[in-house]
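Bumping with the actual sequence this time:
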Amino acid sequence: MEEKDIQIRGFNVRIPLDVMIIFTANPEDYTNRGNLITPLKDRIDSQILTHYPRSLEDAIAITDQEAWVQRDGRSLNIPHYFREIIEHVAFEARKSEFVDQKSGVSARLTISAMENLVSNAERRAILLKDRNIVPRICDLPHALPGMTGKIELVFEGEQEGSVKVSKALVGKAVREVFKGYFPDPLERKQKHHAESRTPLMDSEYQTVINWFESGNKIEISDDMTLDEYFKELDRVKGLRELTCRHMKIDHNDRYHLASAMEFVLDGLHQSSRIAKDEVDHLTAYKDLVQSIFTGRGKTFEEET
């Protein structure tokens, strides 16, 4: 191959080769393994240094191309913010102090996570005999098995555990994507407090937060019918109006509206404005202060 011809042993015959050989390895910035060995480098005309996708759009395009998400017999519709969340998980992992950056975080993480996300939405559709597959935020925990095997942790990450680190990465991804569609709850709170020193009563989210502060809570699961799912979310005062005000969603499209409404609640939770409990397949959103004083959530006993 180096001489670009073949010589048959025992015969004075040389057959020219018209071939191009391409070698590949992981980006050198992110891994100490998979580098081209020195003798092999000497036989390559040019070495092109590559990198992971720098833009969210490129990352989404790669996952969209490679992930197996088109399932037979049912209509699949993935809201764009779900694609952004999945990609932001990888972006967050590539800068996490708990992840071994020398081992890297490849596109296989986002591909597997997206496939698992869609698979759980498909499982729900099959179970409920629904013709539409639309992911929900409560489907995201089912993407974790596609993540835990795709990242290598440093010692501190091993101490935390791969599942806990992966959940934290998903939470950070949700928070970052949420701020792309809605005003940052924390930023508005700090600005308002600095200007007036009065309670945050005119916030974009205050109607929703007040509803939870009044002692209300909702409980949803990933196997609820669309009617049950939407009805439970719609109990939150002001949530539907807030969602429609910032996201371009048809008011009559309850599939997308309901998923977006849960996205708002999870964004508020990741911004430390409301509390969230997860037990098995059940997710509960409730008041943050009440959750702290009732001992639910992160208690000393649970942490130790």
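The tokens above came from a reply further down the thread. The radius of gyration is 25 Å.
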